[in-house]
Amino acid sequence: MSLPPMTALRAFEAVARHLSFTRAAEELGMTQAAVSYQIKQLEDRVGAQLFLRKPRRVELSEVGARLAPEVGQAFDILRNAFASTRGAVDNQLSITAVSTFASQWLAQNLGLFQLAHPQIAVRLDSSNDLVDLLHDDFDLGIRTMPEGPVDGLVSHLLVKGDFTPLLSPALAESIGGVKHPADLLRLPILDPRDEWLEQWFDAAGVEGYSAEGRPVSMMGQQSLLGTAAMAGRGVAMLTPALFRDEINAGRLVQPFPLLAEAARGYYLAYPESRRNAPKVRMFRDWMLEATAYMRAPS
C-alpha cells in the first residue's frame, strides 16, 4: 500500500498533537478549512473517522488514537534526522537549563566540556519556562522532575533536591551561633511561606514554625535565595549540593547535617530518538561524570 500524501499526514500529526484544528492550522501556515480537507482526505484513505468533533473540543477516535503515536514517532524521527544533519554541519549543541542549576553549577563548569570538545559550540538557554523537549529546538534539557519515566524522554539524575537551612556566618554569629535547630526561629527567614521550611522543621523535631508575622518575600529561585542568604538577609532553605563552593569558601554555613527529602531532583533529559546523536552522547557522558560527586553518599 502506498503512503498517503505527506501534507495529509502532517495535518493529522499536528491536529493529533494539539487536539485543535485551529492551532494545527496556525502551526502549519494553512487555513483551518485546508487542514479539515486534508484530514477528510486521510479519513477517506483509511476508511474510518480519525477525530471526534465535539462542541468546543476535538478528540481522537479509536482508530486515530492507534495511529497518532506511530505517525508522531515517524515525524520525530524525521525532525531529529534533519536536526542531527544540521548539527553535524554546524556542531552546535543547544541546552535549556533551569535557572538555579544553570547559575550554580553549569555556568562555572560548561567551559570544561568545551575544552574537552572544542569542535562543539554550545548554546545555553537559562529559563524556568517548561520546554517541550520532544518538539522544541533543544538537544538536551536540565530540569527539575519527579522520579520516574517520562514518555519519550531519557532522563538521568544529576542531583537530588534534598534541602537544609543555609545562612551567612555573620547572621549565625548575630545570635551567638546556631547550635540547635530551634535557634533558627530567632532569625529572619527568606521566603517564609516556602513549604520546605515546615517540612525541615518537622523533620528536625522543631514545633511552632509559622510564617505569620514574618516579612513576606517570594524569590522562588534557589540562586536568588542563596545570594540573599550570603548577604546576611536571612536563613534560606536550599539544596546544599548546589552551594558547595559557597559553603567551602565560608560564604554560607550549613549548621546541621539533616537533609529533608525533596519530591523532585535535577535531571538531564533528552528525547529517546536522540540517544545516539554523537554530541548528545558526548555531553551526557561528560555531565554524568562531572556531577558524580553530587550523587555520592556524603
From TrEMBL:
One of its GO terms (molecular function) is DNA-binding transcription factor activity. Keywords: DNA-binding, Transcription, Transcription regulation. It comes from the Bacteria. InterPro entries: LysR-type_TF_proteobact-type, LysR_HTH_N, LysR_subst-bd, WH-like_DNA-bd_sf, WH_DNA-bd_sf. Residues 4-61 form the HTH lysR-type domain. One of its GO terms (biological process) is DNA-templated transcription. The keyword Transcription regulation applies. Belongs to the LysR transcriptional regulatory family. This is LysR substrate-binding domain-containing protein. It comes from Devosia ureilytica.
